Automatic annotation (TrEMBL):
Name recorded for this polypeptide: Molybdenum transport system permease
Primary location group: membrane
The protein's role, per its UniProt record: Part of the binding-protein-dependent transport system for molybdenum; probably responsible for the translocation of the substrate across the membrane.
PROSITE patterns, A to Z: ABC_TM1
Domain of life: Bacteria
Membrane topology: Multi-pass membrane protein
Origin species: Streptomyces neyagawaensis
């Protein structure tokens, strides 16, 4: 049996050089953002009514999208992890498709499905008078569409790691499947749900392409922080940097909140 090597592991130069270049490639743009930030004017930039309006809308919509993802995504993750059915792999591929789908394509797909002349949207408007495109509700829908796969993947992975025998034991003692899920499974997978919810919230907060395509860019109604950054970049680059710093701070806070999860995987 070979004993594990102790002490520092020598790094071959052909691996070290591209690794350092890759690290610089990822870190340098963030450092440049900090270097070019208008620190003296930052308080005035961040206290403008437009910034607070966009920030408030972003927080509200991202939170609402996360709630939608939780209500729909947790049962979907349980279905994929616990139930054997024909085409489960294909369904899982469909669920993860928004992860690799260009966001603008996702926005166009939402318009085709939920627009006023969409496959479902035309019936929503004629039957219930509901029109989602270019509304705040449309922002929530667009963000939930791109964010829910993050939650589903996280929760499904946690469910697969959890021992299903606890659920089976609960059902043999007379509990229904739903009671076993609510009383036994949910407490077991709560850390995975929390991590998935944070990832979904962060993804929803940073969503741009699907939002601007499906909901538009109307200040106070659909203009979230990423859209405000894009608009400010065309007329006021310093304001765009200030807004970007807010989103960067939120991203760092998300990573800090999930540090235990990342450390446990290392």
């Amino acid at each position: 049996m070979i004993s594990p090597r102790r002490g520092p592991v020598p790094v071959p130069l052909p691996l070290l050089v591209p690794a350092l270049v890759g690290l610089a490639f990822l870190v340098l743009p963030l450092v440049a953002l900090l270097v070019r930030a208008p620190w003296s004017d930052l308080p005035d930039q961040l206290t403008s009514p437009e910034v607070w309006q966009a920030l408030r809308l972003s927080l509200v919509c991202a939170t609402a999208a996360t709630v939608v993802s939780l209500v729909l995504g947790v049962p979907l993750a349980w279905l994929l992890a616990r139930v054997e059915f024909p085409g489960r792999g294909f369904v899982r591929a469909l669920v993860t498709l928004p992860l690799v789908l260009p966001p603008v394509v996702g926005g166009v797909a939402l318009l085709m499905a939920l627009g006023r002349n969409g496959v479902v949207g035309q019936w929503l408007e004629s039957w219930f008078g509901i029109s989602l495109p270019f509304t705040t509700a449309g922002v929530v829908v667009a963000e939930a569409f791109v964010a829910m796969p993050f939650l589903v993947i996280s929760v499904e992975g946690t469910l697969r790691a959890a021992d299903p025998r606890y659920e089976e034991a609960a059902t043999t003692l007379g509990a229904s499947r739903f009671t076993a899920f609510r009383r036994v499974t949910l407490p077991l997978i709560a850390p995975g749900i929390a991590a998935g919810a944070v990832l979904a919230w962060a993804r929803a907060l940073g969503e741009f392409g699907a939002t601007i395509t499906f909901a538009g860019n109307f200040p106070g109604r659909t203009q979230t922080m990423p859209l405000a950054v894009y608009l400010a970049l065309q007329s006021d680059p310093e304001a765009a940097i200030a807004l970007s710093l807010v989103l960067l701070t939120v991203s760092i806070a998300v990573l800090a909140g999930l540090r235990d999860r990342w450390m446990s995987a290392s």
